[in-house]
Amino acid sequence: MADFFLGAVPLILLFPLVGAATIALFGPYVQRSASAFIGCLSIGLSFLLTVGTSFVIFPLSPAQQTLYTHSKFVGYWAHLPPDLIIGFRLLIDPLSLLWMLIITGVGLLIHVYSVSYMASDKNYRTFFAYMNLFVFTMLLLVMADNFLWLLVGWGGVGLASYLLIGFYYDRPVAVLAARKALIMNVIGDVGIMLAMFLMYAHVGSVSYQNVFGHVATIGTSALTWIGVWLLLGAVAKSAQLPLQTWLPDAMEGPTPVSALIHAATMVTAGVYLIARAHPIYDNAPAAAELVAVVGGVTALFAATIGCVQYDIKRVLAYSTMSQIGYMMLAVGAGAFAAGAFHFMTHAFFKALLFMSAGIVIHALGGEQDIRKMGGLATRLPFAYWTFLVGAVAIAGIFPFAGFFSKDAIIDAVLKLHHPYLFVFTVVAAGLTAFYMFRLVFLTFLTGAYRGDHEVHAETERTMTVPVAILAVLSLIGGWIVLPHHDELSFLLRSTFADAPFPQSMADFNGWLSFGVLLIALAGIAFAWVAYQWRPQIAAALHRSLGGVHALLTNAYYFDTIYHWLFEWPVLALAQWLRDAFEVDAVDALPALALRAGAYFGSLSNRWETGYLRRYGLTFVVGAALLLFIYLFVAHGATAGAAP
Amino acid sequence: MPDPAWTYVLIFFVVALVVASLIAIVPGIFTKKRPTPEKLEPYECGVPPTSAMLGRFPVRFYLVAMLFVVFDVEAASFYPWAVRLRDLGGFGLLEMVAFIVVLGIGYAYVWKKGGFSWR
Amino acid sequence: MTIQGVNFDFGILGPISVLVITGLVVLLVDLVGRAVPRVVLYGIGVAGCAGAFIALAPLYGRSATTVNGAFATDRFSWGFSAVLIFTLAVTLLLSSLRNADDGNSPASYAALLIFCTIGGLIMAGATTLIGIFLGIEELSLALYVLAGTGYPRPASEEAALKYVLLGSLASGFLIYGSALLYGSAGSVSLSALSAAASSLPLLFVIGFGLLLVGLAFKLALSPFHLWTPDVYEGSPIAITAYMTVAVKAATFAVLARFVYTVFGHDSVALVPLWLLAIFSMLVGSFGALRQRNLKRLLAYSSIAQAGFMVVALSGVGEYGLSSLLFYLVAYALMNLGAFAVIAMLGDGDEAYADIDAYRALFYRRPWVAVALTLFLFSLAGIPGTAGFYGKVLLLEQGFAGGPWGIALALALIAGSIVSIYVYFQVVWAMFVPQEGEQPVTAGNSWLTWVPVAVGVAGVVALGVIPQVFVSIVSSSM
Hints:
The complex is a heterotrimer of chains A (643), B (119) and C (477).
Chain A: H1 2-7, H2 9-26, H3 32-57, H4 62-65, E1 72-80, E2 84-90, H5 94-117, H6 124-143, H7 147-165, H8 172-203, H9 208-213, H10 215-218, H11 220-237, H12 246-249, H13 255-264, H14 269-276, H15 278-282, H16 285-306, H17 312-333, H18 336-363, H19 381-395, H20 401-416, H21 419-444, H22 461-476, E3 481-482, E4 485-486, H23 487-491, H24 510-533, H25 535-544, H26 546-553, H27 558-586, H28 588-607, H29 612-641
Antiparallel strand pairs in A: 1-2, 3-4
Helix pairs in contact in A: 2-3, 2-6, 3-5, 3-6, 5-6, 5-13, 5-18, 5-22, 6-7, 7-8, 8-11, 11-14, 11-16, 13-18, 14-17, 16-17, 16-21, 17-18, 17-20, 17-21, 18-19, 18-20, 18-22, 19-21, 19-22, 20-21, 20-24, 21-24, 24-25
Chain B: H1 4-30, H2 37-40, H3 59-83, H4 85-112
Chain C: E1 2-3, E2 6-7, H1 14-32, H2 38-56, E3 64-66, E4 71-73, H3 78-95, H4 106-125, H5 129-147, H6 154-185, H7 190-199, H8 202-219, H9 227-234, H10 237-263, H11 271-288, H12 294-311, H13 320-345, H14 361-364, H15 366-380, H16 386-400, H17 402-431, H18 446-464, H19 466-475
Antiparallel strand pairs in C: 1-2, 3-4
């Protein structure tokens, strides 16, 4: 059985690709439901194989779990003489398996959910093709055994994300958002490329094994630069400061996309990258600290913005940003297992939150503004209860999943002796509880329904079952790390064996957990006071803190700043160049080049008269010239060399 | 490095080109042209041609010529083969049989397709 | 077995023997049967190709000679032979489209194609000047006739005449060069020539120069390329497809064998070859710019592509041969694919030779348009296709090949840039919507889908997982 699953590892990657290709090629010839079925089936098969492989790999001893013991060597992808050798190997180690489990598992649930959520869309088949493509590229990203293939997956998920954000291509906002996401992500791709160039310059290889094996020989300053460039990639993909502005806009995509790509999986690729490259960060403390600072600041920054947004998906987007900030903080602090743990629990409850919100949006015919909701608890009880579970989990209330993972991170930050970051995380924890329950109250409770759409019932089984499963996981998902019985860092122990920071989350700091729990409860209480018990308090706050409110509503004016800092100068320069140069110089140059080329071409063509005598003459003259070159150059050289 | 000896060849080449061009061009510039019917004749002595110089033959002749070449080659290779047949032995015989079979199939094909009919 | 001092290994001669028998069987079947459908005759031919492949398979990676060292299976022959046989099969499939009553006898057509390929196989395996010349002549003589089989079109007859006249001229150079080489070395075997190549006596240099002229004619290297556009345009489409690939494959086998066994290292005697290649890349790429006829455009492109392939030999490096072969396989797939599309759209006719016929093709025949786009992308060297990785390998050889290698690599880059414009004109035409009346496209049989599908699969596979094929190619050596 073990051999079967280890042998079938390439299939995990292959199924989604085949699924995407099948739907793309044959979709138009089969029924809509068939393409949905293919989409779900391919992910389901991948998930089953991943689970089987996990049962093979996880029980092994650490020595048998290292990077290459069970990786599947597929073949060399390129061997360019003299020394650039790039292999293609499917990495199977605990860290990649954890990500694969979430990608295929949560991916499967979201695929099933999409079957009814997207049912009325005219591009139903395309949607499943894109989603399968996404799962394939994301799996490629985590199963890659070198940075080149990681980058291929990295770019691939960027492409899938671009396609899916812009899925409603007839909405200009969606197209703009897709373009923005792509541009931001390409900045990150460049960062990874620069890191790869440095690796190749110092090690002569970009494979994990060679790079991590030669970390000691690279030298701290180069290593720090590698770390910083990798971080640039991570920051762009994971929507961390300062490349965070694309994520809220990405909510223009369909809700299942937001759940899968922009909450559960793709945006955590940055966390995966840092955790995977941990030997680099272990030996480059400055780069690691930068990771932690970026994560900590983003966690707080995004949480503050989340408190004032009115679009239900945007609140969740900022919450995602903030929670990934936690993960980045954890991996920056060296607590890689804690970061991976939070990734897992976050995938459960954030996917849950998005999908519950999706049920609401679906029921309200596409309405996303929480000011036009309210009182939905009685009309959409299933959405209400599942959303509540998600909110409780993300707020970090015992015994839900978020409590354990967030606690592990805050505990690690405390050990880091970095007071600002510690304060940030604790404040962000309180704010998280506040804005999530603000959402709960405004959407489901607080008076009567304020919208003008008709509320449809929430009956589709394919939508409710995945949400229910995720709700259960959001409750029990954290129990894998119970006090004094830390399964997760035990499972991941081989990957992070050489990390200096203690990975175990078993030494439970009771007072700290209790304190954070109290802060979270305070946040919930404040939300209750301000939005449920005395709504006028919120209104009063809004009035008295108008400036702050505007600042937060506009996300600290990052878009505006970027507009005036980058977009406007470039556009202005471009306009000026167009007026001043383009017509006369730039346009003229290609035209000139074309005319020159055409002239050369016509020389060649005009010689081609069609007359045989011309051809024969050219032939003979050419031969004569060639012989003359021989006599003059080739023979002359040897004759001159050896007289 | 070019061999200096070949430089003379280059010089010769250029000089020959220049002289030949001059001989062709200069008279055309300086002479006066006073054509008479006698001067315009292709030969100043001899008989003027009465028909086109390039005669046209029916394509059949070429066909026959090609077939002749094929069998001529066959005969030509028979001759040395026959002389050395004893030394070549059985393999030599087989070899020639294979050759004739290939040729024979071609021959039969051409025959069947009407390659030998005069019309 | 050894007979009378001549050793024979019918394993090594297997592919040739199979094809000889196939050719004769085709003729006999037509002779015996009454009005045998062309599909049957071409089917026998394709079956013969399969047989030749089966005979070729055991020779993979083997290195041996037969006929007293005059014919070899080795790193120069295997891959090129495989490409030749593949090209023959594709050409037979494409020919099945041709109009049934165009005045040609299908049996002689198929037999000539098969004999032509045998000539190519002899070229790939011959290790003596005589063997090489015999192979070239067998290939050429059959092609002269085949070029004229587009019978009712005067252009086809013109093509055949031009090809035969200029080809004879080239043959003259070839045989004169061979004679001089024999004179300089006292032997016709290539291994004996390598001694002369190290000291470069005058006789050898002139002989090699004349031989090179002949080979350059076959490869359509500029300035010996002038026949190419006319002949490619005039010949029937399937024959044009065959000529662009098979003649190149066979001639490159000869050239590579010459460069590696006779010289074995970068020699000053190869400088004219590099110059021809640079000139070809520029003339071919620029010459294609203004072509409105797709067959002519691909003719110019094939001139440039021949120049590209020479880059693989620059510096006579260790990996040069495998790079050349990889590119040749890629070229066979993409070029045959492109011709298959042209043939398919015009149903074997010339209706789809003009670029204007491709306007808005995507909206009429999306799959065909996408396939042709893929082939043209590959020819232009867009990443993700076979052509891209092939060019990467070529450039690798070029930049490792000394000053001439770098010059060749730069010419390759320049040629590729120009050729992108060339190919994208066609792509552009296919994807721009157009109002009004549209040319009719043929219904076409599934037979022509086979080469297109094989081409698409191959171009994608070679582009996405290149090393698999590079190692297959390298292990054949």
